[in-house]
Design goal:
4-stranded antiparallel β-sheet; 5 helices
Length: about 240
């Protein structure tokens, strides 16, 4: 795939301090590959006033400081960069990685596991089995670089909590709808907490705080408390590259 296949990007306002960038193409593979490649080039030529760039599986959210720049300027910069890409330059998205995340599923680490099971008409062990058999894809990095994933295979989408929890431990595995997320730091959430990994998923002391990105594949592997407490649990790293 070359640059000429996505020079006509779509840029839409997203509130008063962000724009959403997408690639209008009928081929899903091209949309996803192009937006990831465009993100790398946009970051290399970040316009003044841009605060953050958040990747979705098929979109790019560009957040900017409205006191330093304005929406038309950011939109112009995005379109100009797309139009000026060399037509014969190949676009290469990052290679997807595969992660196997050990998780303890019990009443203490997963306080919402029993209520999720009741909602779905399953036993708690069957919910754990469904989670373990699901293949998740990281669709975007949320707040604090938390990996948000889709791919949960359960009989129906899981509802969020009616009353959010005020303090969830780091490493908590949470589900809602057909999505899952790993809590990187202590904090509140309305997602259902079903387990916890002993691994650190975000470490701001490292040059690269996370080892994962959009498009990466994640499997949750049930382990016992003893297995989780064994030496070796540290910063989460991939187990392999995903064949493409």
């Amino acid at each position: 795939m070359t640059a000429e296949e996505f020079t006509a990007v779509t840029v839409e306002p997203f509130g008063d301090s962000a724009v959403m960038v997408t690639v209008p193409h009928p081929d899903q593979v091209i949309r996803r590959t192009a937006i990831l490649a465009f993100r790398e080039r946009f970051l290399a030529h970040r316009p003044p006033g841009v605060l953050d760039v958040v990747s979705g599986l098929e979109s790019l959210l560009v957040e900017f400081d409205p006191l330093e720049t304005a929406l038309p300027h950011v939109e112009y910069a995005v379109r100009l960069l797309a139009e000026r890409l060399p037509v014969d330059e190949p676009l290469r998205a990052r290679t997807a990685l595969r992660f196997a995340v050990p998780v303890v599923f019990d009443e203490e680490t997963g306080p919402d596991l029993a209520s999720v099971a009741e909602e779905l008409g399953l036993a708690p062990a069957e919910v754990v089995e469904a989670i373990a058999e699901s293949t998740f894809t990281i669709s975007l990095l949320g707040a604090a670089m938390a990996p948000m994933m889709d791919g949960l295979r359960v009989p129906r989408p899981v509802r969020r909590r009616a009353e959010p929890r005020t303090d969830v431990a780091p490493g908590a595995i949470m589900i809602a709808g057909t999505n899952a997320i790993i809590q990187p730091f202590p904090g509140p959430t309305g997602w259902r907490v079903v387990g916890r990994t002993p691994y650190t998923v975000v470490d701001i002391s490292r040059p690269e705080p996370v080892s994962f990105g959009t498009g990466d594949v994640v499997r949750f592997v049930p382990v016992t408390r003893d297995e989780a407490a064994a030496p070796g649990a540290g910063f989460l790293l991939p187990v392999a590259e995903v064949p493409v």
